[in-house]
Amino acid sequence: MNTRTHAANRRAAWQWGSLVVALLGLQVVGGIVAIIVATSDESVAIVPDYHQKALQWDEVVRLRAQSAALEWTCEVDAVAESEMASGLQIRLTDRPGDPIELVEGEIQIFRHARASDLRRVRIPAGRFSGVSLSDCFDADGRWQVSIDVTDRDKNRFLYSKELNIRRTNARAEESPSAVTRSGGER
Question: CA-to-CA distance for 86 and 79, rounded, in angstroms?
């Protein structure tokens, strides 16, 4: 074997070996970039206790049916604050239209695109007919408002509604098939 052939073989081995190492390195760099993007994206939300919630699904369906049987009325509306839809008005009354004597309650608000940014508002015990909340919506998009209250007779009421918020137009639209009343009415 002459020196020219030997040098050409050595150069080819370095070139092909370098190509393989470069491609493997590129794959490692791509994987690191993918991990960084995936872990820094705020729109990815892990539902806490998802497995436990799934196990309790039958209980939730039963509670929704009981809530529907109460025939309470819950109205959830976005309200404009200084030319932007950012506030929330919630009204809750019993069948005759009277305020409800609550023992406990909670309102949860989150934007579907940022479900991990869950806002919780405790409702104090006492007569409750409604509440106005300000600065609820900080961006356009589909928002979920869920209400879970218990009255003094230990009746539990669940209500959930989706709102399409367009702050730029200072209006909110109800999502089609978005209102879920206790028994799953849509």
Answer: 7
The answer to whether residues 95 and 70 touch, using CB atoms and an 8 Å cutoff, is yes
In degrees and rounded to multiples of 5, residue 48 shows phi and psi of -60, 140
pLDDT band for 33, please (50, 70, 90 cuts). Answer: very high
58, two tokens: 């039958």
pLDDT for 66-93, tens place per residue? 999 999 999 998 887 665 557 888 999 9
Q: Which residues contact 68 (CB under 8 A, 6 or more apart)?
A: 181, 182, 183, 185
Q: Is the pLDDT of residue 149 over 60?
A: yes
Q: Which residues pair with 102 in a beta bridge?
A: 126, 151
For residue 29, count other CB atoms closer than 10 A to its CB: 10
Contact 102, 128 (CB under 8 A): yes
Q: pTM here?
A: 0.67
Paired strand residues for 156: 150
